[in-house]
Design brief:
By secondary structure, the chain is α+β, with helices and mostly antiparallel strands. The chain has helices spanning 14-28, 60-67, 75-98, 143-153, 155-161; strands at 41-45, 51-55, 112-118, 123-129.
Length: 169
């Protein structure tokens, strides 16, 4: 339904026009967080890592999935999220299996190595940090371990699913 409304803003005071314009802008912004409405179809990842579909019934399971970010509008979104979770798990597992336990503590003596992406030059690289621990970064205790993790997990998969970089298939 596409309805048009004609309004004469010249009947409003300047302050009212500004307020009205801001309200219109707010109303026209698409909500970046999608939450299904009753009887909307949505996708989620089940306990067996299968992509499933369900109908939003405002049931406990619906809200629990939404609460942990396991509700997707399209099949493409859920498939991407599933592959991203796999890549993150593989990197974390690689770090757990190969890191030197004596160098894992965050202190002035131990550097931590993380896989990063520079969008300006379109380059994947390894960065080192001593004091700043990031919430979502997998840390390695040496640059060679980080490089080996890239090799083991796959640079293209890391680029695509962790950094959202388009790669040729």
């Amino acid at each position: 339904m596409n309805e048009q409304i004609i309004m004469h803003l010249d009947n409003l005071a300047e302050e009212e026009r500004e307020q009205f314009t801001k309200l219109l802008e707010k109303a026209n912004k698409e909500n970046r967080v999608w939450k299904p409405k009753k009887i909307d179809q949505y996708y989620y990842i089940n306990d067996f890592t299968d992509v499933c579909t369900d109908t939003w019934q405002e049931a406990g399971a619906d809200y629990k999935r939404f609460k942990i970010g396991n509700v997707y509008k399209t099949r493409e979104e859920v498939c991407f999220a599933l592959e991203r979770a796999k890549v993150k798990a593989e990197l974390k597992r690689y770090a757990l299996e190969h890191n030197d336990p004596e160098k894992e503590a965050w202190n002035n003596d131990n550097g931590h190595y993380m896989i990063a992406f520079n969008h300006r030059v379109n380059d994947l690289f390894i960065t080192r940090g001593y004091y700043i621990e990031e919430e979502s970064a997998t840390c390695f205790t040496s640059a060679p371990i980080a490089r080996d993790a890239i090799e083991a997990v796959g640079e293209e998969r890391i680029l695509k699913y962790i950094f959202g970089v388009e790669v040729e298939e």
